[in-house]
Amino acid sequence: MVHIAVAFANTVRASTGDALGTPAGLAAWLREMRPYLEIRLDEDALAAVGEHEAAAARRARDAVRGLMAGAGPAGEHVRALNEAARSAPRWHELSWGDPPSAEVRTSGPPVPAALAEVAGHAVLLLSGPDRERVRPCGAPGCVQFFLKEHPRREWCSPGCGNRVRVARHYARTKG
User: Fold this and answer.
1) 14 in Cβ contact with 156 (< 8 Å)
2) Per residue, what are the HEC states of 104-155?
3) Which DSSP state fits 43?
4) In a 3-state reduction of DSSP, which class is residue 15?
5) How far apart are CA 54 and CA 21, in angstroms?
6) Could you tell me what percent of the chain has a pLDDT over 90?
7) Would you say 41 and 34 are in contact if contact means Cβ atoms under 8 Å apart?
8) CA–CA dist 65, 69 (Å, integer)
């Protein structure tokens, strides 16, 4: 399962850089996250993503990473995350049909509203019991985070675990 706050923090990658470095990068990430968001993002909204939205996303993402890592002044990170979370109010409206359903509405533009939703997920993660399960990957050079769901898990992905095991094996056999 994808935890959207962890996925947001992991938009910084050691190998490929910053996934939110450009407006097109932010649009691509939001496109990938659409199934996990309540805010509906159509292609027109994603095509209109500008540098202002990308900069706001990077500010919020850096705050989430800082809080997850316990790095830097927490007050600045908290302020940046709260600013992102309150940037676009949203609410549920009843749609009467067969069957009735609830639809999320917002008074703001869709992209800032989606970023506010992502920031809200991060607030809930960092303030809830799962906060204790957020870990940085233990593989050398990896900058990703993950939710520790198994007591023996130490890496963000099987690939990082394999690299660590291969390096350990190589060090043992090649001395």
Assistant:
1) no
2) EEECCCHHHHHHHHHHHHHHHHHHCHHHHHEEECCCCCCCCEEECCCCCCCC
3) H
4) coil
5) 7
6) 66
7) yes
8) 6
